[in-house]
Amino acid sequence: MNFIDNQAIYLQIADKVCENILTQKWVNGERIPPVREIAVSMEVNPNTANRAYDYLQSYGIIFNKRGIGYFVADDGYEKAVEYRKKQFIEHEVPQFLKTMKLVGVTCSELENYYQTLK
User: Which end of the chain, C or N, has fewer beta carbons within 10 A?
Assistant: First the structure.
């Protein structure tokens, strides 16, 4: 995985896990790859992968069955949506709106473009 410099690696791993849940690669109630497997596949220290899993567990997106592994929570998809929406609004939208204002993009122009994506 290619990591960006301006965000902690464990948060980027957490985002990737959420992406797998949101795209339904991993569904509610399903066992997800173990910490060590994630660490190897993303070429990070297992402690970093474990921190990402602990972080997602604190949001109720995944949970741990001791001795068995981590699973997507029964409402993991919904909680992942909620988490990613909050992250988007707090971290990406302000810069997006600033750029819109700087280059003079209007809300109606944006709406028209958005409609073409459907």
Answer: C
Span 70-110, pLDDT tens digits? 999 999 999 999 999 999 999 899 999 999 999 999 999 99
Q: Are 59 and 18 in contact (CB under 8 A)?
A: no
Q: For 106, phi and psi rounded to 5 degrees?
A: -90, 160
Q: H or E segment at 70?
A: strand 69-72
Of 44, 58, 60, 34, residue with least CA distance to 10? 44
Alpha-carbon span 10 to 52, nearest angstrom? 5
Token pair of 2, please? 């290619």
The pTM (predicted TM-score) of the whole model is 0.84
